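This section describes the prediction task in plain terms. A model, or a person checking by hand, is given the sequence of a single protein chain and must write out its three-dimensional structure as a string of tokens. No templates, partner chains or ligands are provided. The sample shown here is typical of the held-out split.
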Amino acid sequence: MPRAHLRAAEPAWTRSPWGVVFGAGTAAAVGPQMYLATIGVFVAPIAQDTGFGRTTITGSFSVAAVGMVVGLVIVSRLVDRYAARFVLVPAFLLFSLSLASIGLVPPVEAVYFIPCFFVGFFGAGTTVPATRVVVSWFDNNRALAVGVVTGIIGLGAALGPLLAGALIDSVGWRLAYVFMGVMAASVSVTMITVFVRRRVERHVRGRLVNKAHVGDRDVSLELPGATIREALHTRQFWGIAIGLSMVGVVVYGLQVHLVPMMTDRGLSADQAGSLLVIFGLASLVGRVSGGFVIDRVHGSIVGPIVILAPILGMFFLHPPFSTAAVAVAFIGIAFGIEGDLLALLITRYLGTRNFGSIFGPVQAVFILGSALGPLLLGLSYDEFGSYDPVIPVLMGILIVGAFCIATLGRYTYPAVNGLDRLAARDELAAAEVLSDIVKRGGAQKRTPATERHWYVADSKS
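The expected answer:
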């Protein structure tokens, strides 16, 4: 294995890790979530122009989800092997090209689904690497950092429908997709190039190495955690995957169908569109506040409460607008907090050693579940002419998800006291703390990050 060589006197990276959070979040805000958040706004104009039914148009999300699952199988193997930018930049460029291509397809259903598939396929390369980068910088405030990233994504999801609606009114739905593709490429590549890098990321021509040479010493960059084979044999892996995928079925289904559902129930198109904005803003609040809470309260306690919360929201999802707005805000807050759980639970129960290889399959299961949501609600509408018959089914699904998360047990890899402060000051010293955990045989024999290691002493001498 090649080694990255560093001088002993090399100064620590001076930028704040929160800059990484800002860059990763802003790039992700114009990624796959922007596509998802705006599908509802495109339903009516695409239907009028092409004659497609609601099931076909909203089913494009399910097609994109399948594409993302396929992409995750590939990218999950790359994330732990290659530097973040070597994966993120090409993935965002190809995602943006696919998004713009939706506006260029003829009114043929099979052809319409092709760029939607590739939106998901290349979108997979924009999610896992960015999450991996943020997780690498934070341990004590990991959920908060992930929450800020997803909060920025939530802000994009809130503003996306407004932007899409304005573009559709101005230039039509086809050019709206083209413009959104160009914007996604410009913003994402700029953010990644300027801000995004893993902690102690050392590579040779893009391929990551597991040692850094400092003076006459080698610093191990190994991380604690399970292999993918070990993870697949744990009940925590399947509990997280199944439990959170149940939430995806419900919340993504409601999000995609929210505009047509509420117009059917008596709200105007503008009011229904405004509910998407409320959903996005509420999820932003939930993601940031939820991250703060999850870093301090065990995930198996917070998770079930959050998963069951949308049930209450569904009881009030009807006119007048004020009642519907409160219900949507409630569902959005719960969805936002749930968004912090996936990465946090994986790292706490399965570690960060093979984060990409583990996170990818779990997210794939989550996305497959999410893909069923819009399809389930669309079929309910086409079969019964109403969304009401499927609502009790959605409530039952949430109860199953809450049970899975509630039974995960104690963390296997709890946070190391003081590691965030040490990593911000001296990332190689933090790497030594984590490599010591690996040498000592696991998370239960942790060394406090406040202990002095040779690199810290050498760097200050």
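For orientation: The chain has 16 helices and five strands.
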